[in-house]
Amino acid sequence: KRLILATRNAHKVTELKAILADAGLELDLVGADAYPEVPDVKETGVTFAENALLKAHALARATALPAVADDSGLCVDVLGGAPGIFSARWAGRHGDDGANLDLLLAQLADIDSAHRGAHFECAAALALPDGTERVVSGRLRGTLRYAPAGDGGFGYDPVLQPEAESRTCAELSPAEKNAISHRGKAFRALAPAVRELLAP
Ligand code: ITT
Ligand code: NA
């Protein structure tokens, strides 16, 4: 069965394919790039869940196929939860991971190590063409480093060191990251609904 991943972020597509396959779902997964004629939806929601649902519904409606979407970001305690839903454009230009990371580190330069708590959050949404929807979320708690380390993953991975880890997310293997990540938790929690709602 075809399930569209309503994301144009290639890193998310790679992670989601592995996470959903490991959850035992036998699906034909394509990213939103397979549907270039479908315009990107404006992320006008004020929560990760709202934005994930907006993206999933837009693609499901346009393609008449089931779609899942991911809205995610980094929430920093001392910044009151920012960048949060603005994580992809924290430094201005959408998707400029390097600039976003540099700005965040500069903003936290004077924050001592006891106050560098943060978490990644992911909302995983499923939408069917008839309007049926499900949304769940997952979190990964950790602390923020003073300098990036590692070249795996994407986005803020080089600065988040998960609880009970001595490495950053960017120093974990893809399987190690997926096992503990916000995205892994959210999509494993969504898997039963995918299985149920896509059943023949
Ligand atoms: P789509 O909306 O097309 O899915 P996007 O990259 O615009 O792609 P988001 O709006 O959800 O996605 O923004 C997610 C941002 O949050 C992303 O640019 C990263 O900076 C950050 N982020 C999300 N998941 C992450 C992860 O696993 N590791 C590091 N950073 C992550
Ligand atoms: Na977003």
UniProtKB/TrEMBL annotation:
Entry note: cofactor: Binds 1 Mg(2+) ion per subunit.
Keywords linked to the UniProt accession: Hydrolase, Magnesium, Metal-binding, Nucleotide metabolism, Nucleotide-binding
In this chain, Mg(2+) is annotated as bound at 71
Matching entries from InterPro entries are given as:
dITP/XTP_pyrophosphatase, ITPase-like_fam, RdgB/HAM1
Q: Write the Enzyme Commission number(s) for this entry.
A: 3.6.1.66
Q: Which reaction does it catalyse?
A: XTP + H2O = XMP + diphosphate + H(+); ITP + H2O = IMP + diphosphate + H(+); dITP + H2O = dIMP + diphosphate + H(+)
Which coenzymes or cofactors are required?
Answer: Mg(2+)
| Active site, per annotation | 71 (proton acceptor)
Q: Name one Pfam family in it.
A: Ham1p_like
The keyword Magnesium appears for this protein = yes
- Where on this chain does substrate bind? 7-12, 72, 154-157, 177, 182-183
Annotated TM spans = none
Q: Which CDD domains match?
A: HAM1 (cd00515)
Which superkingdom is the protein from?
Answer: Bacteria
The answer to keyword Heme applying to this record is no
Which family does the record assign?
A: Belongs to the HAM1 NTPase family.
Q: What does this protein do?
A: Pyrophosphatase that catalyzes the hydrolysis of nucleoside triphosphates to their monophosphate derivatives, with a high preference for the non-canonical purine nucleotides XTP (xanthosine triphosphate), dITP (deoxyinosine triphosphate) and ITP. Seems to function as a house-cleaning enzyme that removes non-canonical purine nucleotides from the nucleotide pool, thus preventing their incorporation into DNA/RNA and avoiding chromosomal lesions.
Q: How does it assemble?
A: Homodimer.
NCBIfam families for the chain: RdgB/HAM1 family non-canonical purine NTP pyrophosphatase
Give the protein's recorded name.
Answer: dITP/XTP pyrophosphatase
| Organism listed in the record | Streptomyces oryzae
Please state the gene responsible for encoding this protein.
Answer: rdgB
